[in-house]
Amino acid sequence: HLKYNNRSGAALAHLNLAYADTDAGALHNAEAHLAQSLALSLELGDRRLQALTDTVRGVVYSFRGDKQAAFNAYKEALDLAHVSGDHQAEAAILNSTGKAYEDLNEPQSALDNYELALKLFQHDQNRDAEAVTLYYLGRASRALPMWCRLLPCRVGYLRRATRQAGRRAGRASPLDACS
Question: What is the DSSP string of 24-41?
Fold first, then answer.
């Protein structure tokens, strides 16, 4: 990409390589690619790309077991995504931040982030991401001390996610009979 002076494409390539290296467990390589992606995105002034880079940096920290560093990276990414105006990136990062809150044993903060992500996905009618976020809401709600009182709410999230998946597949959900 650099050969053709496509700095944005090069930054994205490094970001994708970092993500692949993270999945493969090659965290040192991932960090090197993230450094390249960040340098290029800063040079370009591309806040969306900076946000995506910080998100993957959070994933690397999470893989390393450094929950607080992962949380901090997601918060930085969230601020950048919000400023960039990319609602889908912001919502995805809210989900990552919610997971980080779960890892830090702060279930109410996790739920708050998932609720915000859900609203953004619903606004943009991203049904697949909405269904995933509904699952996260159901999962996080059971960690609250009063989870028994929240059971109907949690079942509601899971019911909505299952119905959404059924609609995508063109068939009725077994939970459609439950109201």
Answer: HT-HHHHHHHHHHHHHHH
pTM of the model: 0.75
* Residue 30 burial (CB count, 10 A): 25
Tens of each residue's pLDDT in the chain, 179 residues? 444 468 889 999 999 999 999 999 999 999 999 999 999 999 999 999 999 999 999 999 999 999 999 999 999 999 999 999 999 999 999 999 999 999 998 988 999 999 999 999 999 999 999 999 999 998 888 777 654 444 555 555 656 666 666 665 555 544 443 33
Rg of the chain's alpha carbons, rounded to an integer? 18
Angle at 87 between CA 84 and CA 51, to 5 degrees: 45
Contact 95, 117 (CB under 8 A): yes
